Amino acid sequence: MSYIKEKFKAKADELSAEVKDLLKNHGTKKIDEVTVAQAYQGMRGITGLVTETSLLDANEGIRFRGYSIPELREHLPKAPGGQEPLPEGLFYLMLIGELPTEADVQNLSSVLSRRSHVPNHVFDAIEALPVSTHPMTMFTVAVMALQTESVFAKAYADGMSKKDYWSYMYEDSLNLIARLPRIAAYIYRRKYKNGDHIQPDGMLDWAANFAHMLGYRNEDFKELMRLYMVIHADHEGGNVSAHTTHLVGSALSDAYLSFAAGLNGLAGPLHGLANQEVIKWILDMREELGGGMPDKAQIEAYVKKTLAEGKVVPGYGHAVLRKTDPRFTAQMEFAKKHLPDEELVRIVWLVYETVPDILKDLGKVKNPWPNVDAHSGALLVHYGLVEYEFYTVLFGVSRALGVLASLCWDRALGLSLERPKSVTSEWMKLFVEGK
Ligand code: FCX
To answer: Probe ligand 1: pick from 277, 357, 365, max atoms within 8 Å of CB?
Structure first.
């Protein structure tokens, strides 16, 4: 067994004993109550899930195992000559609960590189789809095709014991994370670069190799990919992609089945697809205004038009956050350092100065501030990745790190099949009448 796997097992055994104790001594203690509105309105604000990898504070934003995004950028190991954190390090942190050393990260990079082989039938499955297919659909199909490789599913069919679930889930999770960049890059090159594919470079770290296979040689773009893969990885357990992966996994579906389900949620415009919607919205605005840099009044008019058409302003608002998303701020800092004069970036910043006041004036939007998706497209376009339908695939590759680390914990802690109670509106009417 690898030392990282042994370490995970030791941590999991320790927490399992503590959870057993919590359940025995405090199992009936109430942590929340549920209102009628919450049952109808997306269960917003109900504390009813356990996710070890990260915790979201409405005002401060996400913390991964206690570390905020600025702290991760400071403390996680970097690539030689680089300044952004390596996503392998974040995966280690989410899995083990401790900051990794440089050696831990190098080890994980080479483990992922060794496990990155993708069988041909996965590429055949992608090729079977029309080129016009949305990249997220291709991505989910490819992950489903890869399910043939699940060691968890094989071991379950062979009759594995409950105590071994974690071990096979761990192997599947690492194998899947290792293979995702190759699959995503294949989709990109097939759809946008005439199928001119680029072989992996085993000497590069996970994110840099992804950038390389996409076809980008620029060192700053590799840095952007490292940062991108870190900030999109996890956002505690209740968001659609994390919750779906966890829910499907609770039926003992393997990592491939569970993650593919999560990806389908990420592909929705109110969740991960918002990153493509934002840049589309900005490009449409620029075109409608005749090109060039719009001024604040023009942006204001365009935002109002969007709202009048009954649409949301993409990249703004959040179900939990109530301040500017630190993932937005991290990208803004990256842009200030590397591409402060990029026109699209300056438009994103001017939109940031304009939108919150308009959303506040609506009186119903709980969070008028930008989320992670408000900035990413402008950075990607700058480096030449202009095919915005592909952006949610990037989000998906990153999101695998968090949701698969969580799945390992789910099986290690023996979490149960998820099956909350539902009621009908008829039941609700009788309930409020006290019947
Ligand atoms: N533009 C216009 N209206 C908005 C809005 C926005 N950006 N954000 C919220 N509202 C509206 C809602 O549509 C709702 O209107 P309704 O009462 O007429 O149905 C009202 O304000 C209250 O919604 P609120 O409680 O503030 O927000 P929710 O928790 O229901 O929804 C999301 C949160 C993120 C879905 C919402 O803010 C939204 O649609 N934003 C735009 C899409 C987006 O950027 N999604 C990405 C989110 C995230 F970062 C990610 O998952 O990737």
So the answer is: 365
Is 0.90 exceeded by the ipTM?
yes
Atom 17, ligand 1: residue with shortest CA distance: 364
Helix 87-96 vs helix 102-114: crossing angle, to nearest 10: 100
Ligand 1 pocket mutation, candidates 282, 364, 398, criterion most atoms within 8 A of CB: 364
Kindly give, in sequence order, each residue whose CB lies less than 8 Å from that of residue 75, ignoring residues fewer than 6 positions away.
67, 85, 99
Reduce the DSSP state of residue 333 to 3 states and report it: helix
Fold category of 272-383 in CATH: Cytochrome p450-Terp; domain 2 (1.10.230)
Query: Closest Cα to atom 3, ligand 1: which residue?
Result: 312
The tens digit of pLDDT for each residue in 286-339 reads 999 999 999 999 999 999 999 999 999 999 999 999 999 999 999 999 999 999
Q: Which residue has the tokens 């071990």?
A: 167
pLDDT band at residue 435 under the 50/70/90 scheme = confident
| Mean pLDDT computed over 227-255 | 98
Residues with CB under 6 A from ligand 1: 44, 239, 270-272, 274, 312-319, 359, 364-367, 371-373
Q: Which residue minimizes the CA distance to atom 32 of ligand 1?
A: 318
The full set of domain ranges for the chain reads 272-383
CA-to-CA dists, residue 303 to 216, 306, 363, angstroms: 34, 5, 16
DSSP 204: S
Q: How far is CA 29 from the centre of its chain?
A: 32
What is the Å distance from ligand 1's center to 392 Cα?
18
Q: Show which residues are catalytic.
A: 271, 318, 373
Give the pTM: 0.97
Q: What six digits make up the tokens of 336?
A: 């200030």
Confidence at residue 1, expressed as pLDDT on a 0 to 100 scale:
81
Three-class HEC string of 40-76: HCCCCCCCCCCCCCEEEECCCEEEECCEEHHHHHHHC
User: Which residues in 89-101 are b (16+ Cβ under 10 Å) and which e?
Assistant: bbbbbbbbbebbe
> Cα(198)–Cα(214) distance, rounded to whole angstroms?
7
